[in-house]
Amino acid sequence: MSDLKRELYNLCVDHVRRSMDAAELAIQEAQQSSNDDTKSSAGDKYETGREMAQQETNRNLAQLNEANKLLVALNRIGVSSTATIAEPGSVIVTNNGNFYLAISAGSLQAGGKTYFAVSPASPVGLKLSGKSAGDSFSLNGKSYTIQSVS
Asked: What is the C-alpha separation between 43 and 17, in angstroms, rounded?
């Protein structure tokens, strides 16, 4: 099972790195746009363009900061541990889907199955945390029974 955990972990890291790369590229483009802006006869237009580029840079810096936080959270997860109670790094199989409790990274394909990478702080993550095989919970009118935790 640790091979599956390692694969899911690596898919989450790839997800975060893609987000970081996209944010860094957008920051570079906004800075280049700001640098390429030359003062025209309409001085306000120049200032507006620079301000918009600065706002775009700030927005992407915030996204980059969030991605860094996700990477830190992933670094705290053990991929070789085997737990019987759902905790960060656990793979949880339910009657209504398979989950990887780590970060919110959406749907991941591993081992020929679909897993939903969810944060422990998300609504479903909160319901899964601390549960073990045989436990049940309900979320948004849907009942879940945990079949296995590893």
From this structure: 39
